[in-house]
Every structure is written in C-alpha cells, then in structure tokens.
Design brief:
mainly alpha, 2 strands, two-stranded antiparallel ribbon, Growth Hormone, Chain: A, 2 domains, 489 residues
C-alpha cells in the first residue's frame, strides 16, 4: 500500500483539502436561497424547481460508496482532481443555463463531482496524518462540514441580492482552480496496492439504484405523498397514475436493492472475489455507532436549515440576506469552538467531546424552540444558533476521528464513502421528516399567504422534535468504545 508517514507536505495539503470540502458542502445549501430568483428568471415549473435542489443530493448520496472505493483502488489524489474538475465544469454549465433542463443536468454533474471529492478528501486525511496530528486534521475536516452548511445560505442570499443567481455557481470557479493547483503541488498520492483488483459491477449497480430510490423517497415524500399520491409524478414522458404514492414503491424497491446488495457482497467476500464494500466495517463498534451519531447530527442541522428560514422569512418578514446573516452565527460557533476540540479530546477523550457537543446541540435547539415568538429579536436567535454551532463544532469534528479510529488505512476510502453516506442520508432525513412535520403542523404546503401563528407553531414543534432526535443520537454514543490515546493511532 502506498501510505505516507509524516509527509513533509501534509500540512501544506490540508488547506486545499478543507477548501475542497467547503465548496462541496456549501453548494448543497447555497441554491436554497437563490432558488426563488432562478425560478422567476427561467420561468421554471414547480417540478423543475424541486429537481434543481433534489438531483444534487440524490446523485451525491448514491455514488459516495462506489467512488470512495475507486479512490482506494486507483488513487485518492486522482479521484480528488477528477472530482474537483468535474465540479468546476458543472458549475460553468449551471451558470450559463438558460433552461430548467440544462440547470438540472448541471446540478446532476455537480453531484457526481461532489461524490468524488468528499470521500477522497477524508480518506486522504486518514492516510496522511498519524497520532495527535490526525485528530487535529479530522477536527478541521469535520468542522468544515458543519460550518459550511450554514455559510451557504448567506453566500446565496448575498450574491442574489447584490448581483445575480449566476454568481452562486460562478463563484465556484476560482476556488476550483485553487484547489486543483494545490492538489497537484501539495497533495501526495495514496492508494491500496494490495487490494484484489477487479470490478464488482453487481454491487455498484445495486448500491447506486438502492440509494437513489431511498434518497428519492426521502426528498420527495412531502411532495408526492408518503402513502397516497398527492401529486402526479412524471419523468421522461412517463406519468404515475396509481393511487399509491411512488414514494412507497421507491422505498420498497430501494430496500430490496440494498438487501440484495448486502447478500451479494457477503457472497463475493466468501468466494474471495472483488467487492465494493467490506461489510466487516460495520462490525467495528466505533465505526458503526459513530456513523449513527453522524446521521443524527446531519438530520438535526439540515432539518433546521430547511425549516428555520421558512419561519424567519415567512413569519418574521426577514429578507433572504438577513436570514443568511443570522444563520451565519451557527457557522461562527462551529469554527470558533472546533479549533479547541483536539485539546479537549486529549484531556477528555473523543467520546466525551462528542457527547458534550450533542448535549449543547439539544440544549440550544430547546432554547430556540421556547424563545420563538413573533417579537423575538435577531440577537436572541443568533445567540442560540451560536451555541448550537458550538455543539456541531464539537460533535462533528470529533465524530470523524471516532468513526475512523479503528479503520485500516487501506479501507479508508470505502469507510469514508460509507460514513459520508450516513451523513447524507441524515441530511435528507432531516429535510424530509422535519420538513413534513413543519408543513403538517402549518396545515399548508405553501408559505406565501400562510397564517403567521401557524408558522410560529410549526417552527416551535419542528425544533422541539429536532432536540428529541438529537437526544437519541446522544444515547447512541453510549455504545461508542473509549478511544486509544492519539499517539497510538
């Protein structure tokens, strides 16, 4: 295996790795604020608008496992380069889009690029760093994920206010160039030389199909109905005409595909054939329970980032830019606190830091829920969001270290892909479940013209449930094993 021990360029490589992660995560949320302007300028249908947002998350989640394994086999640096260039090309196409179809295709290609970049960056960090330095590097990577998700809305709001929605995509280009050049110069190649070569085409196909169907169901459940069809589904000339929702069928077929995927992977491993995913990873206690906790963290953050702006703009009448600036308090809390997590981890242990972070998240969301009113000040909301961001900074930064602590470097690509899939499923669950709860409590699927008291009740209920969900994530950390001292990692 090509591994790098204390590579002299490892810290020079880290800023470009973090910048690549920033770009991918920010782009998942930056379009949320710009979407109303895009819909107006391109005269998009409701269906087009939905898919501009959904296709990125769907493709991103579906390809993480497959592309993480590609990095292990053929080189993580190569995967990062191809991914960031793909993302850049897609961003140019998106900025030049004159139709909804063109923009949807560009967002699909962005999802492919993002699914290359995320596991490539994490597995590279796992391969380059050792001991205490690995914990610091993981903290940087993890806090970047938590913080940049909150930066996206303010960037989108600012760009659409002072310029045009095209810049929500064009702003990616200089960052792509910087990351590509930095990767070529500073990031060394790492890959597993001893793994059995060959392609697991059945595993690839089943994982992509299964995850695509499951994520589709999570994203579109509110729109098409969780059980009975609420709106007709149309795709490439085909129209769903049955009373049962296509979401139900998507969940069933997705579960069957993933079940068959697990069976095939076990069979191929027994026969000594190449596999896409070593399911023994899930036998590693820290990886299994850490991934569950990561799913919960993502569920809470992305669910809140979906529902909170609806109340701030629809209930309190804030502008998109003002909303983005408020949510920036979350990112500030994440970045400011995460810098001290390696020291805290050295004194308390990674498991304790994760628990402290989740506890702060739950307390902050509870405080936010009880402080919501039609006269609540921006300062109060910002204070609770800052505390929540601090919790995200503690939990997310150390979760990455905990999850990969016992994973062999040779498997870090597929492990990175799998844990990133857990995070992505968590973000989709957050939007789906908390979004469905928000609109159910509101009693309407439209914010415009909605009752202000209904919006207040909806956001209170949603944040209260989010706090309970994070509490369950805190319970999951009870099963996490104590970490070895970082010098032994």
């Amino acid at each position: 295996m090509i591994e790098v021990d204390a590579h002299p360029r490892r810290w020079k490589a880290m800023p470009f790795i973090a910048l690549a992660v920033s770009l991918i995560i920010m782009d998942a949320t930056v379009v949320n604020v710009a979407l109303p302007v895009i819909v107006r300028d391109l005269s998009l249908s409701a269906s087009d608008a939905e898919w501009i947002n959904s296709i990125y998350s769907l493709v991103f989640a579906a390809l993480l496992i497959t592309l993480g394994r590609v990095g292990d086999l053929y080189g993580r640096r190569k995967l990062l380069l191809v991914g960031i260039i793909t993302f850049g090309i897609a961003s140019v196409i998106a900025s030049l889009s004159s139709t909804g179809s063109m923009l949807i295709c560009a967002r699909l290609l962005q999802g492919v690029g993002g699914a290359m970049v995320l596991p490539a960056t994490l597995s590279t960090v796992n391969a380059l760093f050792k001991g205490k330095e690995r914990g610091i590097a993981f903290a940087i990577w993890g806090s970047t994920i938590g913080g940049m998700a909150a930066v996206g809305p303010v960037v989108g709001g600012w760009l659409t206010t002072v310029s045009s929605w095209h810049w929500a995509f064009l702003i990616n280009i200089p960052i792509v160039i910087i990351v590509a050049l930095g990767t070529l110069i500073f990031v060394p190649e790492t890959k597993d030389e001893h793994v059995q070569k060959g392609a697991d085409f059945a595993g690839i196909a089943l994982s992509i199909v299964g995850l695509s169907l499951i994520v589709f169901g999570l994203i579109e459940g509110i729109r098409f109905g969780w059980w009975v069809t609420l709106e007709r589904f149309s795709l490439a000339g085909f129209t769903w005409s049955w009373s049962i929702s296509p979401v139900v069928v998507a969940f069933v077929l997705g579960a069957l595909a993933m079940g068959l995927f697990v069976r095939i992977e076990k069979t191929r491993a027994t026969l000594g054939r190449p596999i896409l995913l070593d399911l023994d990873l899930l036998k590693i206690k820290s990886f299994r329970y850490g991934s569950i906790a990561a799913l919960v963290v993502a569920l809470g953050e992305f669910g809140m980032l979906f529902s909170l702006p609806l109340f701030l703009q629809g209930g309190l009448g804030l502008t998109a830019l003002h909303t983005g600036v408020l949510i920036l308090a979350l990112a500030m809390g994440t970045f400011l606190i995460s810098g001290g997590t390696p020291q805290l981890s050295a004194r308390m242990g990674g498991r304790a830091v994760v628990r402290l972070g989740l506890a702060l998240e739950a307390i902050a969301i509870l405080g936010l829920s009880f402080s919501f009113s039609l006269s609540v000040s921006s300062a109060v909301i910002a204070a609770w969001l800052f505390l929540y961001g601090a919790g995200v900074g503690l939990a997310t930064a150390q979760l990455t270290s905990v999850i990969l602590a016992d994973v062999p470097v040779s498997q870090s690509g597929q492990a990175s892909g799998l844990q990133s899939t857990f995070r992505q499923l968590g973000s989709s669950l957050g939007v789906a479940l908390l979004g469905a709860l928000f609109f159910t409590r509101l009693g309407s699927t439209r914010i415009q013209g909605a009752d202000i008291d209904g919006l207040l009740a909806a956001v209170k209920t949603t944040t209260l449930v989010a706090a309970v969900v994070i509490g369950f994530g805190l319970l999951a950390t009870i099963a996490l094993p104590a970490q070895r001292p970082q010098s032994q990692l």
